[in-house]
Predict the 3D structure of the following.
Amino acid sequence: MDHYMVDTSEDRPSTTQKIAPENAREARRRVCKDIGRFFYENAIPFNVATSPAYYNMIRSVGAFGRGFKPPTMSIEASDQVKDAEFIFRLLDSIVEEIGEHLVVQIVTDNASSYKAAGNKLMEKRKHLYWTPCAAHCIDLILEKLGDLPQHKNTLTKAKKITKFIYNHSWILALMRKFSKKEILRPAATRFATAYLTLESMLDARQPLEAMFTSTQWLSCAWAKKAEGKEIRKIVLNDRFWQSVLYDITTTRPLVHVLRMVDAEKKPAMGFIYNAMDEAKEMIASNLGGSEGSFRKIWNIIDDRWELQLHRHLHAAGYYLNPQYQYAENKSTNPEIKLGLYHCMDRLISDATERSNADLQLLSGGFNLVMGLQNYNVLL
């Protein structure tokens, strides 16, 4: 469709200065180099260059000529108080511009001002939902778990090890001789990084122990300093590694959910409900299944999930996902259909459409899935 809608007219005014033929090749080379750098540094797939919109953009910039000021990612609001009222007006204006009937969900972070603005927007706009960011919510869960005494103590010691190794080039080089993998594991969020680093550290346990018992270490100056002795003592302590394993088994399922919702490979809305349930069950299983061993961790998860993130949209997404609808272990929790019908009440205002949707649900049809997905626009 875009192919036939491309504006190919050449009669628009242009302020582009003419470039002498002998300089045109060099000028084009510089332009292409800058465009290429933009693709490389932002990890943009090269096939984007085949998009008609890409050619339209380049043509329009060239037609404008010198002095073009590119658009920024946000609205200039440096002189505004970022309170709930301002955020509400901003979001409401965007919904108005797009069209309320085209918007199902608006996602923001979990700050109180955004929450208040989102609830106010839902009061005015009866056709959409506001939901807090799932990645932010799960990161807050990981942060809260990090405050548990055993987690906090382990993370503090692990941080000492990584800082000691990566802040001293000679020690880092020695570590790389013994271990073929890096310890630090940058991730989407701060606390996911901490727990992924623990996994890397556990994988590198044997090389680290070998390093701190090697002749190279024992003969170096750091082996005689207090900091070096402290780090060596931590690495060679079996109880430290047991606590690392505990931290990993109680957080890895949540990190997997975080990576799912933060990725852009597929829409996560239809998978969050089941993923969170599976994460909780996996944590309980990892801890032996005794409620006393996992209840405190579940309570931390539920405090965020049930009170902050869990929405009717998540339940409806689970019900409308064929992957779960036809699964043998499909959940029969009543809140799933409750969420579905709540979404239908809010999103399907036409009586005839609602009647047809009810009939499709009764007959097991899934045309409603495509219908709701076609409405979905994420801001």
